[in-house]
Design brief:
The chain is mainly α. It has a single domain, classed as MFS general substrate transporter like domains (Growth Hormone, Chain: A). Helices cover 80% and strands 0% of the residues. It is built from 14 helices and no strands. Helix 10 runs antiparallel to helix 11. The longest helix has 40 residues. 60% of the residues are buried.
Length: 441
Amino acid sequence: MSRVPRSIAIAYSTGSLGTGMYLTVPSVLLLFYLTEVLAVAPALAGLAVFLPRLWDVITDPAMGWISDRTRSPLGRRRPWMLAGGVLTGVSLVLLFNAPASATGSAGFVWVLAVYILSATAYTLFAVPYLSMPAEMSESAEVRSGIMAWRMTFAMAGVLVGSALAPLLLEAFGGGRAGFSGMAWVLGPLCALAMLAAFFGTARAPVIASARLGATPGGSFRDALVNRPFRLLAFAYILQLGGLGTFTAATPYFVTYIAGRSEGAIATLFVALLGGTLMSMAGWHLLARRIGKPRAYVVAAVLAASGLAGIFLLAEPGAWTPVVWLTALVGIGFGGLQLLPFAMLTDVIHAARSNGCDLAGILTGAWTAVEKGALALGPAILGLLLSLGGFISGLAVQQESAALAIRAGLAGFPALLVLASVPVLLHQHRLQLKAVLAARPV
């Protein structure tokens, strides 16, 4: 079945509201929560955000292997989506509700333990969920269209997570109570969006499965030797690591450099995600006209240009220009998010055409990359803040700390985005060469 009813594509994409919220709220606020509420040192706080993503390197590919082999009346993907959707919402609430006694090292342990459990719950949903588009249609254009819908909903989820979360934080009074109230609102919303995708995909088309590896090791080896996938994942790590650093640095820029309240964090994220959402359809059309790799280069140049401008202007009196430049960055990041996902479905489908069903394995590895790259941002920022001599609660930071915040907000992200371009172009050449070699003479 090449065509997919729009109602199913939209119902499927609703789940990305939940995944967008879940991935964004910790990326934006967890490091800030650790340093400002739980009194954890910046470098140690960065580890608390990053270490659970090392666990994902094991669990995400394993979940892909399991979902590939699941047989149930609900299909091989959807039972896990049901369980993961519920548990992800519950764990997000717990993450920002540490006991009153959990400060310093105890706060580090609480967040680390709960975040590991939460990451596992998210894996149960996300890996099977993201495997579905590659097996809904034989048509690359149809799959790209589904991913455009999915990324639009994902960016809406990111907008809710990054813009609404700071407003809720301020509305509930800030501090420990503010983070708790925010989590009690967003956790259930996250679960509801994921469950909507579960119910909405009951009649989604499924292409017949190709060969599955006989053992877990065999399938993992097939994934590891897939060089186009490895290069695509590496390019995604670079640019998404830049986005993770930007989002983690935003609360510090707003409160310590711009001198504004926590609610003003939402302004920058509305600009960022507003640009992303408005540009999504345009990137889909541009990719159809000039190809995904060339469209990716355009997106990277736009994002890097906006970030360079922010780095130069990130001063207390330049709030309005920074907001407009953030919108430009958002337009660029729209392409940087959509196009690698669309190319991932091509890689999965190419493997299927060669008689090997790696949808779950490759998607599991991809989600581990996605979460790890986003968590890499707070880890980088925590290290930068420590090196810069940042002191939590100090209204006027020393110059080196302010420079560290600016570097995390824009300097490092711009470099990482540009570094991803040659990697992705090399990946495309390899993928095209493999497709041409597979065609009959």
